[in-house]
Amino acid sequence: MEELCTGLCSVLAESGADAGLALFLSLLVGVLLVSGVPLITVILLIWIERKVAARIQDRIGPNRVGPVGLLQTIADMIKLLSKEDITPTAADRVLYNAAPLVSFASVVLIWAVIPFTPFHYGVDLEIGALYFVAIASFGTLAIMAAGWASNNKYALLGAFRVVALLVSYEVPLVFALLLPVMLAGSMSLLDIVNAQTGMWFIVLSPLAFVIFYISSQAETGRAPFDLIEAESELVAGFNIEYSGMKFGMFFAAEFLHVFTNGIIMAILFFGGWLGPLYYESPLIAFAWLGAKGGLIYLTTLWLRNTVPRLRIDQIMAFNWKFLVPLSIANLIAVSFALKLLQELGWAPRDLLSASFGELLPTTVILLIINGAMILYLLGVLRERGREARRESHDPRAAIANVGAAAD
Predict the structure, then answer these.
(1) Domain-ending residue, one of 260, 285, 318
(2) What is the CA radius of gyration of the chain?
(3) Which DSSP symbol is given to 118?
(4) Residues 260 and 198 in one domain
(5) Which element (helix H / strand E) includes 186?
(6) Which of 128, 183, 236, 356 has a CA 20 to 30 Å removed from the CA of 380?
(7) CA gap 262, 258 in Å, rounded
(8) Which residues pair with residue 115 across a beta bridge?
(9) pLDDT band at 406 (very low <50, low <70, confident <90, very high)
(10) For 169-233, where are the E strands, in sequence order?
(11) Whole-prediction pTM value?
(12) Are residues 141 and 69 in the same domain?
């Protein structure tokens, strides 16, 4: 995208157009191209999610409006646009109306740094990974603003719950994100992809991918972390006062955020566009990135439609008592092992130019470390499961635990 904008700018300047106007038009075309991909994608994602949920739950799904229901999302969008736009009398009108826009923009802006192919990307920021974390946090601010500005106690309570969840799970997500950054020696997403030419990072640190996957699922508020939609407790959560397209923008942001996280995981752990013949054609490279991100996206749909919602105390305890310590321990273990291997001369200091053969000893040792940690964790989880089963068969132990928790 950057090369395309530069080329378009030079063509317009050579044709006699004003230099400032040529620069503006070239940047405008680049912005439209980068933002157009997610905007068009979200329409298809909603249809895909409905069809996948229908198959998992033994239902039919959209099949009436358009071929195999492809136009159902368009019909829903028209319905939302035609609904009355309601703003509560006591609401903070500026924040109330800005929250849906900020929520959707926080996802679309992430696509500005996503490298679609080796030649096509919005901008190659040296702090691309940090930019991703910072921009994704705007969604949390939008949810808080929506709940506060609605002037509704249920909306505010729903916002508090969701923000507590999102802020908490950002901690292990960032620790897991540090692994690809450390292995590549750069925060640029383009450099992270290029550093996986010799070996994908999912092989070097599978535990970091698992932590990132779980945390990103919580960041989007999907099951089993969907406190946003706890209807039995919160009516409809932070967005209870919204109607029409404002209501729809929150859900469009959620659908797009899930797919965006799939693309980010493909870039960080699965080599992005890397694959057979990726350098022969940009379309092939783009297809590889879309296929990897799409597969990850489908697993999130599978998880959402098969796992029940957890209680808020279970979700928070899982994060702070299990996921955060695990992410810190994994970061320390992998970074210490990698530094030791580099000092011993068994690991290359620059993964950007390392080949598969040079990375093989590093890969084997890091896999052993990750495997040992995973086996230990499975043992801990197995023991905790046995304790829970024993308590379920012993009413006195269960009552004692409830009393201890109350104290």
Answers:
(1) 318
(2) 23
(3) S
(4) yes
(5) none
(6) 183
(7) 6
(8) 121
(9) very low
(10) none
(11) 0.87
(12) no
What crossing angle do the helices spanning 128-149 and 93-108 adopt, rounded to 10°? 150
pLDDT in tens, 319-336: 999 999 999 999 999 999
Q: Are 241 and 88 in contact (CB under 8 A)?
A: yes
Q: Are 178 and 345 in contact (CB under 8 A)?
A: no
DSSP string, 310-358: PPHHHHHHHIIIIIHHHHHHHHHHHHHHHHHHHHHTSS-S-TTS--HHH
Residues 103, 249, single domain; the answer is yes
Structural domains in the chain (count): 2
CA distance between the termini of the chain: 59
Selection from 168, 190, 174 nearest residue 123 by Cα: 190
Cβ(1)–Cβ(121) under 8 Å? yes
129 dihedral zone (left: phi>0; alpha: psi -120 to 50; beta): alpha
d(CA 147, CA 158): 7
The whole-angstrom separation of Cα 398 and Cα 388 is: 9
Task: Indicate if 65 and 88 belong to the same structural domain.
Answer: no
By three-state DSSP, how is residue 94 classified? helix
Mean pLDDT taken over the chain: 84
What's the domain range around 130?
A: 83-318
Same domain, 257 and 156: yes
In the block, tokens 């439609």 appear at: 305
